[in-house]
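User: Please predict the structure of the protein below. I'd like the answer in structure-token form so I can feed it into my own downstream comparison script.

Assistant: Understood. Taking the following sequence of 274 residues as input:
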Amino acid sequence: MTDRAAAGALLPLVDSHCHLDRLDLKAHDGDFDAMMRAAEAAGVGHMLCIGVDMESFPNVLATAEAWPQVYATVGVHPLYRKSRSATREELVAQARHPKVVAIGETGLDYFYAGDDPSWQHERFITHIQAARDTGLPLVIHTRDARADTLALLREHGRGQVRGVLHCFTEDLAMAEAAIEMGFMISISGIVTFTNAEALRDVVRALPLEALLIETDSPWLAPVPHRGKPNEPRFVAQVAAQVAALKGVSPETVARTTRDNFFRLFNKAQPVVPA
């Protein structure tokens, strides 16, 4: 299946979580512009470039400034322990930029760093507070930390924080609890993996109006691109798999998840093609 066949003719796809500053561009001879043209040809109209530390944030922001269809987030990933912490005030200040539409990537990951999660808790709380201060959504990474992720959101979000659980791999109960709190669930290329039947069951059970789609590129390339560097154009395969699971057309998935994206990240302004 080609990217265009998976997406249809220039569908309004949104890659709601990608790391454009970290892509492997070998497939495009190192040409970032060529990668962006390939994404457009696959029907990808908008992308959210995710900040994972303050050291690389200027590069994330520069990409968003250079491309009208790209937006940015500011935050420190929960596994980036060696990166300096961002203060609540710093996150709020950086979020004033017109292209910064969310706080994160933040959250809890006990799979890789569960020995002493206190430092993750402190950073997560800081990001929750910054989201509350700014009114911007949170982009959350959570793995093997279901109870604590939800508990900290309830305690420190105070019902005033919304956002997305990105690259979701947890269970239906967590997804439903997050949706009840005003969060969306973002589905990555993992949904195409052979061993991901539990995730496919979650997608079948959730309303399409609560879903986003993403690549998390350059990681987690979907089938049939597994083992290759991921990139935004491959979000078409995610859309196609979600469509098959929901019994709707890829066009419906593309348009609904686009609408969901702009409803959640309401600081982002959609780009109208010329």
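That's the full token string. The CA atoms of residues 12 and 45 lie 6 Å apart.
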